[in-house]
Amino acid sequence: MSFADQIRQKAEEFETKSPQEILEWAIREYGDDIAMSSSFQTQSMPLLHMATRIKPDIRIFFIETGYHFWETLIFCVRVASEWNLNVIDLRRDPRWDAFMGQNLRTLPAEDPNLCCYIHKVQPMQKAVNSVWAWISGIRRDQTEERAYARIVELQDDGLIKINPMLNWTTADVNRYIEEHNLPTHPLLEKGYRSIGCAPCTVAIGADDSDRAGRWAGRGKTECGLHTKMFKQKDYVVP
Ligand code: SF4
Q1: Which CATH number is 18's domain given?
Q2: Domain count, the chain
Q3: What is the pTM of this model?
Q4: Whose CB among 101, 124, 132, 150 lies 3.0–4.6 Å from 33's, allowing a Cys bridge?
Q5: pLDDT tens digits, residue range 183-208?
């Protein structure tokens, strides 16, 4: 059986496993050659909690776009300090600085795909070069694109992407947070159930889907970390 087939078989097998069982396998399999990403919002807490209970020093990539709400940055520092987390900030390639110096205020509205590429996708592409496997917290109920993801994926460049939360729902996440008394992002109570960068996130109503406040009204639902954009490396730094 080819390696790609083995990964497909594993993904199939994990459809009925819990996130904790998937994480235990991933961390046993890849040891120190594994990292997870986290956006440090309320929904991120269960995965962070589970992974760091299994491997307290796991590398945690936090994408510091420079556009975050200050509440997110404070929450990240607070949780990292209280849980003694190994958080690594990812930032844009400094070769974009001159371009961003001229476009800082306008780029999120004028070209959000380029902005996400510069601030999220490219830094993550670089960071995952240092590991064999990357754990992400995406769930099938979040976006149409994520509905088709697999629990374990072999990417073209050989990177193994592991999505242990894929089959969890918002209700599962909330139940876990309550059961374990996990901290919540300070903006949750103001109607921010899914939080990204400040220029691209608005508060939502009780009847809206969790991600309705992300790039609202702009025809964009994904930053590119979990789409085809992540596999493309064709933007040239000016
Ligand atoms: S979410 Fe908005 S501000 Fe953040 S990187 Fe993407 S376009 Fe830029």
Answers
A1: 3.40.50.620
A2: 1
A3: 0.95
A4: 132
A5: 999 999 999 888 999 999 989 888 88
What sign results for the dihedral spanned by CA atoms 48, 49, 50, 52? positive
Question: Is residue 52, in this structure, part of any structural domain at all?
Answer: yes
| Pocket lined around ligand 1, Cβ cut-off 6 Å | 65, 67, 108, 112, 115-116, 119-120, 196-197, 199-200, 223
Ligand 1 mutation pick, 63, 65, 124, 221, max ligand atoms within 8 A of CB: 65
Computed over every residue of the chain, the mean pLDDT equals 94
Q: Is residue 238 part of a domain?
A: no
By residue range, what is the domain housing residue 120? 3-231
Probe residue for ligand 1, chosen from 92, 99, 119 as the CB with the greatest number of ligand atoms within 8 Å: 119
Residue 160 lies inside a defined structural domain of this protein = yes
Q: Which residue's CA is minimally distant from atom 6 of ligand 1?
A: 116
Give the atom of ligand 1 at the shortest distance from the alpha carbon of 120.
5
